Amino acid sequence: PAFTEQLRGGFEKASAGGKLSYEAFNGHLSGALPAVSVHGDKIRAAFDKSKDQEGFVDWPAFSSLAAMEPGILESFVPMEARAQPVYDELKATFDSGKTKPLEWRKQQLRALQRLYVENQQALREALHGDLGGGEWRSLIENGAIDDLEHAIDNMDEWAADEEVIPHGKHAAKGKWILRKEPKGVVFLMGAWNYQLTLVIGPLMDIIAAGNCCVIKPSELAPHAALMLEKLLHQYLDPSAFRVLQGEIPETTALLQLPWAHIMYTGSTAVGKIVMSAAAKNLVPCTLELGGKSPVFVDKTADLALAAERILVAKMTNCGQWCVTPDYILVEKDVEQQLVDELVKFASKRLGSPQDQRGDGSKYDFIQRIVNSRNAGRLKEYIDTSGGKIVFGSAQDCDVEGKFIPFTIISNPDRSSKVLREEIFGPILPVLGVDSVDAAIGVARDIDATPLALYVYTRDGAIAEKVMHSVTSGSAGVNTCNEQSVNADCAFGGVGSSGFGAYHGRTGFLEFSHKRTILYRTAEGHLFPKAMWPEANRVSDEAIATFKAAYGVE
Predict the structure, then answer these.
(1) Which of 88, 125, 315, 475 has its CA 20 to 30 A from that of 369?
(2) Which one of 322, 335, 341, 480 is the catalytic residue?
(3) 267-296 pLDDT, tens per residue?
(4) Alpha helix (H) ranges present in 51-96?
């Protein structure tokens, strides 16, 4: 009923004399709301069927269209009108204490497990609709099933009060407790590259910590966004968890609300916008951003193994993974050998550009780029790299078809975009360097605080030297990407790659308020009675006692 009332107001505002023209109707559908992206043609055809002889629809006809596809008609209701009632409802739920019992939280996490298990085919179709690829692509997002079980099994321990044993004079004051309490209503902004994992992953931590949550999936992955809206509303308690769809204007409106916490996964540029908006309401943020994650390969490394592990990580999801290797820095003594191993492995596992296009079957490994804009950006990186292309080519790129063949570039120009901007796609630059020290200098210059860093070496001292010299959100020695998928370990960035962290216990604490409580003994006061003033005067004895207690004159 509330939405119908809002929708009627939107209709009246858009219509003239109680009737809506196709031009006005279509103008509202020009945004990138997921429902518009997926079902726009269907709803436009329905409008055409419903219009009168003059080409207009009235409120009854418009209402029928809304019942047919409410997600599209949301474009007639400004987010300012939609968001506040949802926020108020979830805030009332939180204030009621409903989300605090641990068993209620576990019920919601078990429901998320059922969501995965009972909807495998629907989830596969949604993921394929956004990024293409075969069945394997959707299966790698099922890791959340085990992570949910991990959270359920460990929640009691994570949530338990921690008794603090204080030092010195504080011990005699009583019992000190650190209690983890829910924060409130959290705003979660998902990402398009791992459409399920980057919503359900942080959401499970938000739920485990006892919060309510508004989820906004990425509009760049509309099929998954709509599927998440449908399934999350079906499986979770809708009084505590709600999905709202939108693009930039809608997100801007949502960021104005006084959330208890904001979780965002995406680009550094948008992360700055999120942080700026959050500052107006003093809202804490967890920002999981990105950057240019380097791979160091020294002359002692097992080059065949390094090539395999680097490429398996880089190939996955067509390079659209925030922690994936962005570029390689290899000592010149072994540079050509590494390039040969990379090309040999890529040729065997990926084949020619035509092989990589796939046949549309469930067996395809390679996905598509998320949209033609990003495909065009990646093609430009190849065209302007100034390096030698040793695998792949710009000629085989299909920007409109969102296909970029896997491309390895030897020694691109240091000033080229492919070395100055985050790639986030199937392009792998390889730079020869004179030494590990030289590699450290290059990495610091390109990106001083990437989300991840990788070192391939047989020399443990070299690995430690690189990690000591270059800061990163996480790191892997003789591996890539694996460090980010362990639910027992923190995952997050540093500097321009973000801040805050989640996964497992770390995520539980991230979305909890750590509240210190002192259960005071019957005896004693904040200060001993001998230090209390008389007629607003503190005695020399009290001052001397204070000085002596701290060892000062």
Answers:
(1) 475
(2) 322
(3) 999 999 999 999 999 999 999 999 999 999
(4) 59-68, 70-73, 79-95
The DSSP output letter for 433 is: E
CB of 330 closer than 8 Å to CB of 433: yes
Residue 488, burial from CB neighbour count under 10 angstroms (0-12, 13-18, 19+): exposed
Q: Report the phi/psi class of residue 291: left, alpha or beta, with left for phi > 0 and alpha for psi in -120 to 50.
A: left
Active site residue 397: no
- Alpha carbon of 202 to those of 32, 106, 500: distances in Å? 24, 15, 12
Active site residue 250: no
295-320 confidence digits (pLDDT tens): 999 999 999 999 999 999 999 999 99
* Percent of the chain at pLDDT exceeding 70: 100
400 vs 375: CA distance, rounded Å: 8
Q: How far apart are CA 69 and CA 65, in angstroms?
A: 6
- Render the burial of 167-187: b for 16+ CB within 10 Å, e for the rest: eeeeeebbebeeebebbbbbb
Of 506, 460, 501, 453, nearest to 480 (Cα)? Answer: 453
Q: How far is the CA of 122 from the CAs of 116, 135, 224, 457, in angstroms? A: 10, 12, 10, 43
425 in Cβ contact with 325 (< 8 Å): no
What residue spans of 384-513 are helical by DSSP H?
Answer: 417-420, 436-446, 460-469, 504-510
CB 83 within 8 A of CB 255: no
d(CA 371, CA 392): 20
pLDDT tens digits, 33-61 = 898 889 889 989 999 999 998 899 999 99
Are 491 and 502 contacting, i.e. CB atoms less than 8 angstroms apart? yes
Tokens of 285: 């943020």
pLDDT in tens, 444-503: 999 999 999 999 999 999 999 999 999 999 999 999 999 999 999 999 999 999 999 999
* Beta bridge pairs of residue 182: 512
Sign of the torsion angle spanned by Cα atoms 504, 506, 511, 514: positive
Active-site option among 219, 288, 335, 341: 288
